[in-house]
User: Fold this.
Amino acid sequence: MKKSPALLKSVVTGLVTILTLIIFAYGFSVTNVNFEETRSERRLASLTRILRALAHPKIFDYTYETLNVEVPFYLGCPEGGAAFPEVDRSGAFILVNAGCAAPKETITVEGHNFQENSSGSISFIGISPEAPDGVPISIGNFQADAQGNFKVEVTLPNRQIKPEPQALRATGQIQVGAPMLSQESKVTWDKIIETVFMALLATVFGTLLAVPISFFSARNLMSEVKSPLSNISLSLIGWPLGMWLGIKTSKFLANLLMPLSNSFLLVLAGTLVFPTLGFFFAKWFLANQNEELEYRFRKRLINLLYTVSLAALALISILFASKLLLQIGAYLTPNKDVPLYFLRKFIAQIGDIIAMLAPVFATLVSGGIFGGFFAQLGQTISDRMPAATAKIFNLIVTPIAGAAVGILILQGLNWFYQFNDPAILFYLPAGIGAALGLTLALVAAPKQPLPIGIFIYGIFRTLLNGTRSVEALIMAIVFVAWVGLGPFAGALALGLHTVASNAKLYSEQVESILAGPLEAIQATGANRLQTIIFAVVPQIIPPYISYTMYRWDINVRMSTIIGFVGGGGIGFILQQNINLLNYRAASVNMLAIAIVVSSMDYISSVLREKYV
Amino acid sequence: MLEVKNLSKTYDGGMQALKNVSFNVKQGEFLAVIGLSGSGKSTLLRCINRLIEPTSGQILWDEQDITAASQDEMRHIRRKIGMVFQHFNLVTRSKVITNVLAGRLGYVNPILSAFNRFPQSDVAMALDQLDRVGIKNQAYKRADELSGGQQQRVGIARAMMQQPTMVLADEPVASLDPVLAHSIMQHLEKINKEDGVTVLCSLHFLDLVHRYADRAIALKEGALMFDGSPDKIDDQKFREIYGKDAERIG
Ligand SMILES: Nc1ncnc2c1ncn2[C@@H]1O[C@H](COP(=O)(O)OP(=O)(O)O)[C@@H](O)[C@H]1O
Ligand SMILES: [Mg+2]
Assistant:
C-alpha cells in the first residue's frame, strides 16, 4: 500500500505545474493581455508618434515670423490654358501642378526651401476690383519635412470664375533669433518648484506629528504603562471633560478678544503682556512646586487651579500673537504687487495657522490637565484606600466612565451615519458601556494594575495601519474636495500619509532601542517623561533622521503625480498635456520629474551616509 | 537596614528565578552576591529597586515596605538607591556629563530637566564625581568615545549623583579586563568605606569577594545557599555553590 515517494513527488510537481499554468492563464485573461493589438498597424503608428514627440521635449522655442509665398493662379482656365508662371527659386517657393483649374478641383501644391519641419497653411487668394489686395480662403495645411519640402493636395474653393489671374499662397513660419526657453519650460519650472515645496511641507509637518505618535505606538514603552482601574476610569472621565472645557474656553476667549483685534496697539500690548505674565507665573509656579508624596486633595486642587490659569494665560498669549501676526501681515500686503509678497503674506499665514491650532492646543492641554488630575486622584484611591473601598469606588465610577466613552464613540459615528435617534445615540451606548464597565469593575482586582498601555498601543497601531493602507493619491481626492484643487490639498494628503507611515517606522525604531540605558535611567528615580527624554530620544535620533530623509524622497516622488487627482504640482499640467495630446510639452514635464527625483535620490543618499 | 523576606520571583514564562530568598543587610555593609550565571543574582538586585516586580515576599528598607510602595513612592525610594550595571548602560550617544547628570533626575524639576536644564550646583557636583573617579577631563566627550573601564566609572559617578544610601552593583566588573576590575572595585570600596554607603555587589570571582566583601550570600537556581563571611566558603561549600566540576581559581 505504500506509495513510492518518487511517484508522489512527480504527481505533486505535475499538479503544481498545472496550477501555475491556470493561474497565469487567468492572469492574462483578466489583465487583457492582447498581443495582436500590439502588432496592429494603427497602434504602432500612434505609438511611434507619441514616442517621437516624447523624444523631442519642447524645452526651447524660437520667435517666428510669417512668410508668405504666392503664385498667380487662374480659377477657371482661360482660352488656351495658362502658362506656368515663372518662380523665383532663390528663397522659399511653391509649385502647382497646373496653372489653372476649375472650382472644386483638386490640385497638388509643392513647396521648397521652407523652414525644416515647419508647418503652415495654404490659401486661395480671391482678387476682385472691390478687394485688390485679395481675400484669403484657407484651403489646406502643410507640414514641411526635414529638408523644408512639402507636397500636399488641396481642393479649390467654389468661387466665381474670373478671367484675371488670382493667386495661391503658402503661409509658413521662419525662426528668427536665438532659441529661448519655451513657455512650456517656464510653466514646468513653476510647477516643479511647487512640487518640491509640497513635498517639503508634507515631510516636515508630517514628521512633527509622527514623532510623538511613534512613542504611543511603541510596544516596549507602552507595555510598562499599567494603571489600576480607579485610575483608568477617572481619566476616562477627566479627559473628555477637560477637552470639552478646553474647546469651550478657547471659543469663549476667541470671542472675547474679537473686539480688540481692530486696535493694533491693544493687540501689541496683549502680545507683550500676557506671555510675560505667563512666563513669571510659570517660573514662580515651578519654583514653588516641591513634589509631595503626601496626597492632600486641597493642595492638588489648588495646583490644578494654577495649572489651568497657566494654560489659560498661554492660550490668551497664543491668540494675541496670532492676531498680531495677522494684522502685521495684512498691513504689509496692501496689494499683490509689493516686493517679496510671498514673505509678507507668510506672516499672516503663520498667524492663521496659529489661530487654527489654538483650539487644538487648548483641547489637548486641557484634556491632559484634567485627565492627569483625575488619574492622580484615582491612583491615590487605589494606593491609599482599603481594597474594599476601592472596589466599591470602581463599581460606581467604572460604569459611568464606560457609559461616557460609549456615548462619545456614538457621537463620533453619528457624524458619519447620522442616526439622530436618542436611543442609538445615548441609551444604547450608555447601557452597553456601563455594562462593560460594571463587568470590568467586578472582575478586576481593585488594586491590580491593568495593562492600559498595551491597549492604547493597540488603538494607535490599528489607526496607523488603517491610515497607511490608504494611498496618498486617494487621500488627495478627499482633500481636494475639502480645500479645493491645488498643491495645498496635495500637501495635506502627503502629510497625512507621512504621519501614518513614519509613525510606524519610527515606533519600530523605538522598539529596537537598547533596554539597558532605559533601565539605568529608571533606576535613578526618573519619571516616565524623563526616561523617554534621556534614554530613548538620544538612541532614536539617527534612525529618525534617516527615515525622515527617506520619506522626503518618497514624498518628492509622490508629489509629482499627486496632481493627477487635482493635488497640484507638476502632475497637474502633465496630465493636462497628455489629455490635450500635447506630448512635446508632456515630455518637458517628464524630463523635469526625472531630474528632480533622481537628484533628490542622490542628495538624500549622500546626506544619509554622512549623518547617520 | 535592608530586610529581604521570603522573596520569590516567577517570570511570565514560568521560570522561577528566585525561591523564598531571605537575608538582611546592615547599613554600611559590603555584601557580595555570588552564584553561577542564571542563578538569579540580577533578578534579586532588580527586585530590590523594583525594576522587576517581585511575585511574592517582602522587602523592607529602614522599616519602609518597598514591595508595597506606590509608583510615586517608588521613584522617591529609587533616588536613594544607586545602581551600577555589568554593561554600564550609559546612553552612549550622549555626553559623559549628561549621563552623570541623569543621576539627579529624581531630584530636579521634571519640567526643566526635560529641556536638559540642571541647577548649577548639580553640574558642579557632576564634575566633582567625575573627578573622584579620575575622568573629569572626559566630561564633555560622547560616552561611546570612552573605554570600557572609563564607562564603568561614569556609571559609578552617575550612581553617586543620587547621593545614595545603598548601591546595587550587578557584576560591575564582568565585562572588563581583569586588570581593570580592581580599579572599579576600589571605587566601590571607597564609596562603601568613606561615604558609608551600603553596597550589594554580585561577583563572579571569589578572589574579589574575599578582598572586598564583608559578607557574602550565594544563590543556586534561585535559592539561598549560603549567608556568611567569605572566609567560610571552604572547598565543600564552593562545590555546593558552583557544582561538582567547578575548579577553584580564586
Ligand atoms: N525577563 C526574563 N524573562 C524570563 N526569564 C528570565 C528573564 N530574566 C531572567 N530570566 C531567567 O531567570 C533566571 C535568573 O536569571 P538572572 O537573574 O539573570 O541570573 P544571573 O544574573 O545570576 O545570571 C535565568 O534562568 C534566566 O534565564
Ligand atoms: Mg546577571
About this structure: The mean pLDDT of chain B is 93.
